[in-house]
């Protein structure tokens, strides 16, 4: 995992050419990923080629309007992605646990929802950057809440401010409709991260609404990230999306604007 050159050379001695078709590992500078390419003629496999082409189309030559949907638990996991995408997208739709840190940064009460208090300033900066660039940064205006994190918890809908004894576990119906409208009007859409705790049926509707809107969208659609891919599979929408990425961490790093070592190493034989 440290990219040891001696180990990479030992691997290289076992073959004549190296083909990397492991997109899901290409963000790792391992001896078996980027190391071998230093000692053998190397190339991308067909899956890796398809992944690179899909993300290049989205990030470097998107048809507009370009909409990105980001979800998942923590803002801190997606900070670099937000920073990079705000330079590229026309609209950024935020859901999942990370939305409540943004709402808290705007002064809304978020009850017992997941909040990263040390990221409030970062969220304020992102909101200011979006405003300065004319990017629509959309946040939930209503929520599906419960008094506890459990599959059998009683789910109810509330407005933008969440009662002190409740936690938000999904985006609400008004937000679902707003997000679906933005997705369906887009010519390029990339989705990374669910809108709520979709593993629990009571809190799946937001993620399902986004997934179905993606399926209806006429534009070019890409889904990356393990949870989003799992949600698309759960909803039976695999055939309705243009590209479903095989790499969670790798796709996230591409959305951050990073160069993946496993790809950069190809064709660089010493």
Question: Low-confidence parts, pLDDT < 50 over ≥5 residues?
Answer: none
N-end to C-end Cα span = 21 Å
Helix and strand composition category: alpha/beta
Instruction: Give the topology string: H per helix, E per strand.
Output: HEHEHEHEHHEEEEHEHEHEHH
Proportion of beta-strand residues:
15-25%
Secondary structure blueprint with pairings:
Elements lengths: L4 H8 L5 E3 L10 H5 L6 E3 L1 H15 L5 E5 L8 H7 L5 E4 L3 H8 L14 H14 L2 E3 L4 E4 L9 E3 L8 E5 L1 H13 L2 E5 L12 H12 L3 E4 L2 H9 L8 E2 L3 H8 L5 H4 L6
Parallel strand pairs: 1-2, 3-4, 3-9, 4-5, 9-10, 10-11
Antiparallel strand pairs: 6-7, 6-8
Describe this entry's structure for a reader.
The chain has helices at 5-12, 31-35, 46-60, 79-85, 98-105, 120-133, 173-185, 205-216, 226-234, 248-255, 261-264; strands at 18-20, 42-44, 66-70, 91-94, 136-138, 143-146, 156-158, 167-171, 188-192, 220-223, 243-244. The protein is of the alpha/beta class. Helices cover 38% and strands 15% of the residues. The protein is elongated, with a radius of gyration of 20 Å. Helix 8 (205-216) links the parallel strand 9 and strand 10. A six-stranded parallel β-sheet has the order 5-4-3-9-10-11, sandwiched between helices.
